């Protein structure tokens, strides 16, 4: 039997006008119809109808780059340059990383993402099997990959085992409805060109995404140029890694020729504006990327460098900083950033049936509660989503036709249990560090 849901507003995508008092028809995991009460109710008699009231139903958001287990490190080292933050704090703590930290850190992040209306995300970290276990339990969807780098990993040990593990995951999750696997070399300063080449070959063998941090800081460009005499994009191009399966994260320091090249070869970019600002990395040339025709997603990056997992605020920041640096408020529109956070993000991660609330698409949707005072009045539902909504304003989340959160209550995760476990983990981390 089909389910019908309605609310004051339905925002099907950035290409359709917001639908006032619309009715959305869901059959199992898919949307099959959308229309007014008069059109829909007589067509589907005896169906369950849920009226959500004074709310906006919108496509579930996509966090296209993060490191979810790192929520356990939120606030552990602040106000430092990326290389100092990584080398002096994060890498030494990660050398002592435990599987259960990854599992509970993931769950903490999942709670935050669910409450921010995120349905799909992309993760790169260690002990990814634990991330997968938590994601499967939560009902969210994810593209995940074990981070590959040349030095020994606290998770898989020597590099060779990293390739074996990635291939094992690629095989095991080839047909999985919720989980997709990416080959995830960390960067060109933690992976040699030979390592990246092997990653590219592996991604080609399984037609998998290649997920890598690229051109994040000027120090990265200098380090790579010092070692190899070339810029990171040039190396990646020579290795054959720039193609439609590339998910290049950050790209703060891309020059004009590199933007043109990425566009020509259909590579995808993920923009993480708040992490780039917080780490003082700079501001990515987003308007130039969009003008060149590149599909760009939005990511929070890890919760230890952001320090949250709120895609609403990434949309707002992405838009505001471009308007500010260009001294032109028309340079980017609210539709552009919402598209990045919905169906472009979904497509970039390989979930192209998600990101729109139209017949044929997956029923992945979130519900924004207009009873919050900063969401009134509702002249423009799309602008409310982009400029006024915040983490915690989402009352309901549905993924593939199943409720994950209903009226602010997460149905798939025990929130109190997660908070208790994370308190315990904080004590363990402090006892190992100090
Ligand atoms: Ni990152």
UniProtKB/TrEMBL annotation:
Belongs to the metallo-dependent hydrolases superfamily. MTA/SAH deaminase family. This is 5-methylthioadenosine/S-adenosylhomocysteine deaminase. Binds 1 zinc ion per subunit. InterPro entries: Amidohydro-rel, Deaminase_MtaD/DadD, Metal-dep_hydrolase_composite, Metal_Hydrolase, MTA/SAH_deaminase. Signal peptide: none annotated. It is an enzyme of class 3 (hydrolase). Residues 56-404 form the Amidohydrolase-related domain. Keywords: Hydrolase, Metal-binding, Zinc. It catalyses: S-methyl-5'-thioadenosine + H2O + H(+) = S-methyl-5'-thioinosine + NH4(+); S-adenosyl-L-homocysteine + H2O + H(+) = S-inosyl-L-homocysteine + NH4(+). Its cofactor is Zn(2+). Its EC number is 3.5.4.28, 3.5.4.31. The keyword Zinc applies. Catalyzes the deamination of 5-methylthioadenosine and S-adenosyl-L-homocysteine into 5-methylthioinosine and S-inosyl-L-homocysteine, respectively. Is also able to deaminate adenosine. One of its GO terms (molecular function) is 5'-methylthioadenosine deaminase activity. Zn(2+) binds at residues 65, 67, 213, 301.
């Amino acid at each position: 039997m089909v389910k019908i849901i309605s609310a004051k507003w339905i925002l099907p995508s950035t290409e359709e006008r917001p639908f006032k008092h619309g009715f959305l028809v869901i059959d199992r995991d898919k949307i099959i119809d959308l229309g007014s009460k008069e059109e829909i109710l007589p067509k589907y008699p005896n169906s369950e109808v849920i009226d959500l009231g004074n709310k906006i139903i919108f496509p579930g958001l996509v966090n296209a780059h993060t490191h979810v287990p790192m929520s356990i490190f939120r606030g552990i080292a602040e106000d430092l340059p990326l290389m100092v933050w990584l080398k002096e704090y994060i890498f030494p703590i990660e050398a002592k990383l435990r599987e259960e930290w990854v599992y509970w850190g993931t769950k903490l992040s999942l709670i935050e993402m669910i409450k921010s209306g995120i349905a799909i995300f992309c993760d790169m970290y260690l002990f990814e099997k634990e991330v997968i276990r938590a994601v499967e339990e939560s009902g969210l969807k994810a593209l995940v990959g074990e981070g590959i780098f040349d030095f020994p990993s606290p998770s898989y040990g020597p590099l060779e085992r990293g390739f074996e593990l990635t291939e094992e995951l690629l095989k095991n999750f080839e047909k999985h409805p919720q989980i997709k696997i990416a080959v995830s070399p960390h960067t060109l300063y933690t992976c040699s060109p030979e390592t990246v080449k092997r990653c590219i070959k592996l991604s080609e063998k399984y037609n998998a995404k290649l997920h890598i941090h690229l051109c994040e800081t000027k120090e990265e460009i200098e380090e790579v140029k010092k070692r190899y005499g070339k810029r990171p994009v040039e190396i990646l191009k020579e290795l054959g890694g720039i193609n439609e399966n590339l998910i290049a994260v950050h790209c703060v320091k891309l020059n004009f020729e590199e933007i043109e090249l990425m566009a020509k070869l259909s590579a995808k970019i993920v923009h993480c504006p708040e992490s780039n600002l917080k780490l003082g990395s700079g501001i990515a040339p987003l308007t130039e990327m969009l003008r060149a025709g590149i599909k760009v997603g939005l990511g929070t990056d890890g919760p230890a460098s952001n320090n949250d997992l709120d895609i609403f605020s990434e949309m707002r920041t992405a838009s505001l900083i471009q308007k500010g640096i260009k001294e032109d408020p028309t340079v980017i529109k609210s539709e552009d950033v919402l598209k990045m956070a919905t169906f472009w993000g979904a497509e970039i991660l390989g979930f192209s049936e998600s990101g729109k609330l139209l017949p044929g698409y997956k029923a992945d949707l979130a519900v924004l509660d207009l009873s919050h005072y900063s969401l009134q009045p509702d002249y423009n539902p799309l602008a409310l989503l982009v400029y006024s909504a915040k983490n915690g304003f989402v009352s309901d989340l549905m993924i593939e036709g199943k409720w994950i959160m209903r009226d602010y209550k997460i149905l798939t995760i025990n929130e109190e249990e997660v908070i208790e476990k994370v308190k315990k983990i904080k004590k363990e981390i402090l006892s190992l560090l100090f």
